[in-house]
């Protein structure tokens, strides 16, 4: 893996354009657009305030920059650098902002309502969709045709389905939930999953036309659903809950077909357990010089690591969260299906160092990756069954059915000491996956690394 | 009897000697009382001597005798006195009585022995039984104690069980209670939360109103430059038509998704059905032929016919690709039935195998593997032998059928056979010729005899004629003998007839010379034997030679 030079980035806001040609990053209040292959600066924009959020439009022609404190959203065009648009929410307060799938509308979520601004259309109209009491959940179907908005009115939860082409309200129905927590469309765009707050295990499945297809409750009284994930073929719905189990529902009967447990001891002999093992580098004392050069320093303090296959049974580090605090670190916090529908990666917050990979064809545990530090996030390659994991240190871990590898990401300075807050977000644009290259954007204030495997 | 006993016991102890003295005297000379000492050997000890002498002394002889007599008579013995005189003793009867008494004594002794033996036996039996009884009692005691112990344990376990059940119930009740508490609290919290939410919403509304009043008049958006849409169209207004269109599109999307899913399911279904049918066919093949008990047969009979029907039906169904409920049910039911049958069959085989392994071959129709293998080996050997036999026979046949110019050996063989036959035939010919010769000889002799006979007959006839002439001549002289003419004429007629017959027969069969004289014989015999009834005999006689001639003809053939 080769890495490019560092360049500055603030606020974890580095984004590739959807077509992979450009890379946008922001420094304080400036938006920098670079060419993806050469990293030459193409455009430079200045915004009103410190940018909190940027997003490319789906056709890579526009970028929106949201400044929540000011309540302003600014939109820049790549083709016409002179053009720009500013949306001011005023005192309503901007909570979130995102593009619509067609790349021509911006949805601003304010504290009072969600407004759709088609400011880039020929006619501008802002329609205030509704008054929302709490943070809205917005979900777009994969093909971008329909949008589902969850809201709460009079202590009741409602879901509205809009047609994205003309923002017409298609359906509006209430859900039988205590406090609707989240909604998500199935990839085929025909089923909407809505689940309740973690105090109650309840997930409701609605068809596109608003009919309730099925309700699933696994148990009562304990903390319920923590995370859900649809399989790419819409065949399965994986529900991760606070009881350290993942339940898989099938799309035909919406009944549970299997349960995946995450015990602290992995006993099955068919599971491969990769354990990250450190190997300290050798330092030749003659070569040491004072003051130490940058490279030397980084190499001294960085530790190499590799993966070892451990023999089952393996016991993993299990933590028991404090019972009197809210939002305990327990349960299945992260779920992701691989794009070919073969694997499911999960993380049990009780066992923070491990990533569990399940084989969906056999409905069995396939691989367990045991890291030295707690796993912060993981993401699948959009084209192949390849998983990238980061644990907050200076390494990137890649797993594929062929094997496991840990890649050292060159970092400097404070990052080398390891910041527990670092979160590495990975993007695998389709274009680059075909070239078998991995681009990694890493953490706080540090550089952007381009790598090719 | 008791008296006798009591008397004899003390009495007999003393004067035994005297008694015997006396008896010996009586033997020799009944009236005299000589003191001849004749001691008979006694099997008993000296005490018995005194024992015996105690009863009778010299003084009370008469009384003792009469007493003895009385006793003996009462016992059924004959009197010891002589019949004629009262005082004289009948020695013979006395001896007999004594003998009887001895015999009786022996019998009694034997009986006593037997009784004693039995007594001993019974005693030992009794001992034995008593021992057994004691042991059994002990065992009973032990088992009773054990039972008591086990009962006690059982009681303890049951009480433990009850306790655990009680604990479990308590725990369950507690859990239920806690759940109830939780649910009540949840409702309480929900209620509170809703209240607070409503308050919050109200406050937000007020805030919004307050805040919005100031700034919201401004336009929130500025468009500095207008950017057209990618396809250059303008946005459309929202109307009812658009609404309807949207609905339509939504339903289209849903329907297409459902159709896709249904297609996938149909494909899966068809594949599974195919697999099931294949499985069914294979199971039918795997099942053994129906050589089981008639009971099972009656069960399997309709099943088989059902199976065949099913196969036929389902094949038809396949052609038309119907998938109605009944067909599906039929298919699954038939597969389940057959699977059960196959399972039973496999279980039976497993049982057989396990029984064979354990070595217990009780049933007749269960053949152990070794026996089975032996049988198969034997059968194979037999088959081989039969095959070899068949081969050799075939070879021989071929050799037989093959042409003689092929092998010298075959020629020789053939010649051998022919020679054998020829020799046999030659022998027969010889025999035949001999017979022929004999027959010819006989015939010649017969013909000669016949000729002689004929000549004799002629002579005789001539004589007769001459005699008849004479008679006639003599008759003519006196008519008194005219009645006698008929009989000789009849006789003549019959003789003529006979002659004719003989001639005819001899003429009729000139080549068979055998028959001629031979036939003459029975004819002649018939002539000589029965003259009167010659006519009736003749056809019989004729038929006889005819028959005989035919049989002879057969022989000569």
From TrEMBL, chain A:
UniProt xrefs under Pfam families: WD40 (PF00400)
Gene3D superfamilies to which the protein is assigned, alphabetical: YVTN repeat-like/Quinoprotein amine dehydrogenase (2.130.10.10)
Superkingdom, taxonomy of origin: Eukaryota
A GO CC term attached to the entry: MWP complex
SMART domains registered for this protein in UniProt: WD40 (SM00320)
Protein name in UniProt: WD repeat containing, antisense to TP73
UniProtKB/TrEMBL annotation, chain B:
Biased segments, Polar residues type: 522-535
Residue ranges of the TM segments: none
GO biological process terms, semicolon-separated: cell adhesion; intraciliary transport involved in cilium assembly
Domain of life the protein comes from: Eukaryota
Cytoplasm keyword on record: yes
UniProt subcellular location: Cell junction, Adherens junction; Cytoplasm, Cytoskeleton, Microtubule organizing center, Centrosome, Centriolar satellite
UniProt-listed InterPro entries: Adhesion_Centrosome_assoc, Afadin/alpha-actinin-bd
Entry annotated with the keyword Disulfide bond: no
Chain positions covered by the region annotation Disordered: 502-557
Cross-referenced Pfam families: ADIP
Chief place where the protein resides: other
Family: Belongs to the ADIP family.
Name used for this protein in its record: ADIP protein
Organism for this UniProt entry: Ciccaba nigrolineata
High-level lineage: Eukaryota, Metazoa, Chordata, Craniata, Vertebrata
Gene that encodes the chain: Ssx2ip
């Amino acid at each position: 893996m080769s890495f490019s030079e560092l360049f500055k980035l603030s606020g974890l806001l580095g984004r590739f354009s959807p077509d992979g040609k450009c890379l946008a990053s922001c420094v304080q209040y400036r938006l920098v657009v670079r060419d993806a292959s050469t990293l030459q600066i193409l455009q430079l924009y200045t915004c009103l305030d410190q940018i909190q959020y940027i997003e490319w439009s789906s056709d890579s022609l526009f970028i929106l920059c949201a400044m929540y404190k000011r309540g302003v959203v600014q939109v820049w065009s790549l083709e016409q650098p002179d053009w720009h648009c500013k949306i001011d929410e005023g005192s309503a307060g901007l909570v979130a902002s995102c593009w619509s799938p067609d790349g021509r509308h911006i949805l601003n979520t304010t504290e009072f309502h969600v407004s759709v601004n088609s400011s880039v259309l020929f006619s501008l109209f802002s329609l205030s969709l509704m008054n929302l009491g709490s943070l809205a959940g917005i979900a777009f179907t994969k093909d971008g045709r329909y949008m589902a908005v969850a809201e709460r009115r009079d202590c009741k939860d409602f879901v509205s389905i809009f047609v994205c082409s003309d923002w017409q309200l298609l359906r509006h129905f209430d859900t039988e939930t205590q406090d609707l927590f989240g909604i998500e469309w199935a990839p085929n765009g025909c089923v909407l999953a809505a689940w309740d707050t973690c105090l109650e295990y309840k997930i409701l499945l609605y068809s596109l036309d608003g009919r309730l297809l099925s309700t699933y409750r696994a148990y009562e009284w304990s903390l319920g659903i923590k995370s859900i994930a649809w399989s790419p073929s819409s065949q399965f719905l994986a529900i991760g809950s606070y009881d350290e189990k993942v339940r898989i529902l099938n799309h035909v009967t919406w009944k549970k077909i299997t349960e995946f447990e995450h015990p602290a001891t992995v006993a099955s002999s068919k599971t491969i357990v990769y354990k990250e093992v450190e190997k300290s580098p050798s330092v030749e004392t003659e070569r040491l010089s004072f003051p130490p050069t940058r490279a030397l320093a980084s190499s001294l303090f960085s530790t190499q690591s590799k993966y070892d296959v451990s023999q089952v049974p393996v016991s993993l580090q299990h933590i028991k969260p404090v019972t009197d605090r809210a939002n305990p670190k327990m349960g299945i916090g992260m779920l992701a299906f691989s794009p070919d529908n073969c694997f499911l990666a999960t993380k049990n917050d009780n066992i923070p160092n491990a990533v569990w990979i399940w084989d969906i064809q056999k409905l069995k545990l396939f691989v367990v990756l045991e890291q030295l530090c707690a796993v912060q996030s993981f993401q699948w390659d959009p084209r192949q069954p390849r998983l990238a994991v980061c644990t907050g240190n200076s390494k990137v871990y890649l797993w594929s059915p062929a094997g496991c590898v840990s890649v050292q990401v060159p970092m400097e300075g404070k990052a080398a000491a390891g910041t527990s807050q670092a979160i590495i977000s990975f993007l695998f644009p389709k274009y680059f996956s075909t070239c078998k290259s991995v681009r990694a954007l890493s953490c706080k204030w540090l550089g952007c690394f381009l790598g090719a495997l | 009897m008791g008296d006798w006993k009591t008397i004899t016991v003390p009495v007999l102890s003393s004067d035994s000697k005297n008694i015997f003295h006396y008896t010996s005297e009586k033997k020799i000379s009944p009236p005299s009382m000589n003191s001849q000492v004749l001691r008979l050997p006694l099997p008993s000890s000296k005490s018995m001597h005194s024992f015996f002498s105690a009863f009778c002394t010299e003084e009370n002889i008469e009384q003792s005798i009469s007493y003895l007599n009385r006793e003996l008579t009462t016992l059924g013995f004959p009197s010891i006195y002589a019949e004629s005189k009262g005082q004289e003793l009948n020695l013979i009867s006395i001896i007999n009585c004594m003998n009887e008494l001895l015999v009786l004594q022996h019998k009694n002794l034997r009986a006593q022995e037997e009784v004693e033996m039995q007594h001993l036996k019974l005693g030992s039996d009794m001992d034995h039984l008593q021992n057994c009884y004691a042991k059994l009692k002990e065992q009973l005691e032990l088992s009773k104690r054990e039972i008591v112990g086990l009962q006690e344990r059982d009681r303890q376990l049951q009480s433990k069980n009850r306790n655990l059940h009680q604990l479990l119930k308590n725990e369950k009740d507690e859990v239920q209670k806690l759940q109830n508490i939780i649910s009540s609290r949840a409702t309480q919290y929900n209620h509170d939360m809703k209240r607070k939410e409503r308050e919050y919403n109200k406050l937000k509304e007020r805030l919004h109103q307050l805040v919005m009043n100031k700034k919201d008049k401004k336009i929130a958006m500025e468009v500095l430059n207008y950017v057209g849409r990618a396809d250059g169209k303008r946005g459309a207004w929202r109307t009812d038509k658009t609404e309807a269109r949207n609905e339509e599109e939504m339903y289209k999307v849903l329907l297409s998704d459902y159709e896709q899913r249904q297609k996938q399911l149909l494909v899966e279904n068809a594949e599974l059905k195919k697999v099931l049918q294949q499985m069914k066919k294979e199971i039918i093949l795997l099942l053994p032929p129906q050589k089981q008990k008639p009971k099972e047969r009656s069960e399997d009979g309709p099943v088989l016919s059902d199976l065949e029907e099913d196969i036929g039906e389902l094949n038809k169904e396949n052609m038309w690709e119907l998938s109605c409920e009944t067909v599906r049910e039929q298919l699954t039911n038939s597969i389940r039935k057959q699977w059960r049958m196959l399972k039973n069959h496999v279980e039976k085989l497993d049982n057989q195998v396990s029984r064979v392994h354990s070595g217990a071959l009780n049933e007749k129709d269960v053949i152990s593997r070794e026996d089975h293998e032996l049988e198969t080996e034997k059968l194979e050997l037999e088959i081989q032998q039969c095959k070899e036999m068949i081969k050799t026979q075939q070879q021989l046949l071929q050799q037989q059928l093959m042409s003689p110019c092929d092998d010298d050996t075959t020629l020789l063989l053939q010649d051998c056979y022919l020679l054998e036959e020829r020799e046999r035939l030659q022998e027969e010919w010889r025999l035949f010729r001999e017979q022929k010769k004999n027959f010819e000889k006989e015939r010649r002799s017969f013909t000669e005899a016949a000729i002689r006979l004929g000549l004799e007959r002629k002579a005789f006839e001539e004589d007769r004629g001459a005699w008849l002439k004479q008679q006639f001549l003599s008759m003519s002289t006196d008519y008194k003998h005219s009645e006698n003419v008929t009989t000789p004429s009849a006789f003549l007629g019959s003789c003529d007839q006979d002659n004719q017959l003989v001639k005819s027969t001899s003429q009729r069969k000139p080549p068979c010379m055998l028959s001629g004289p031979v036939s003459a014989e029975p004819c002649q015999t018939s002539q000589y034997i029965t003259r009167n009834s010659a006519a009736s005999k003749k056809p019989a006689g004729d038929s006889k030679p005819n028959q005989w001639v035919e049989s002879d003809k057969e022989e000569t053939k």
